[in-house]
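S1.2 Input.
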Amino acid sequence: MKFKITIILSLLLSANLVFADKMKRYEVSITNITKGQTFTPQLVLTHKKSLSLFTLGQPASMPLELLAEGGDTEPLTDYIESTPNKMGEVQTVPGLLASGQTVTFKISGHHKHHYLSFAAMLLPTNDTFVALSAVKLPKKGSVSYFAVAYDAGTEKNDQNCAYIPGPLCGGEAHSEVSDMDEGYVYIGNGFHDLGDEDDEGNIILGPLQYDWNNSVALVSIKRIKHH
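S1.3 Output.
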């Protein structure tokens, strides 16, 4: 009996070692390299190449719209977790990431999940988000990527504080569909000079402080050993 128990324990140990070998760990650092934009909490995931948060030139999904207009990562997380065969780990890095700041965290991926994506809203904007879409994870060492700003195309870019959430403006976090919406995801083209306020006295944000020239973030990913 003791001999059988020893064999079973050895097999279980071997299985655990194989499983651990298939799990990969990474240290990720995200740096906000804009002058005046802040990132909302960042949604980050490891996954298969077939999973995509958005497609350029196509309408944004409702979960992406809610992230781009209000910084809410929960609906997009729910969508990702509904495809468990495609994803490794998904997490939201809490807190706002101001200009010039860096946040560092760890994330895991199974041996089949060779890609990383991340997304966060830019504040203050109407519906602009920073993202990396399915970049390759390093087999060893580290890699760095520049991330650009995308417009979700779900809200008019009026730069009006009444329609921009967050600590600066405190406006609405989500808008109804409008004929002024672009209707598709595209590369964000920054802030424009639209004047100082609207007819109701709401502040219109200008480019001097809040404009950007892509890229807007630097993302570094390092493969780390198991501990």
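S1.4 Remarks. Confidence is low (pLDDT under 50) at residues 5-20.
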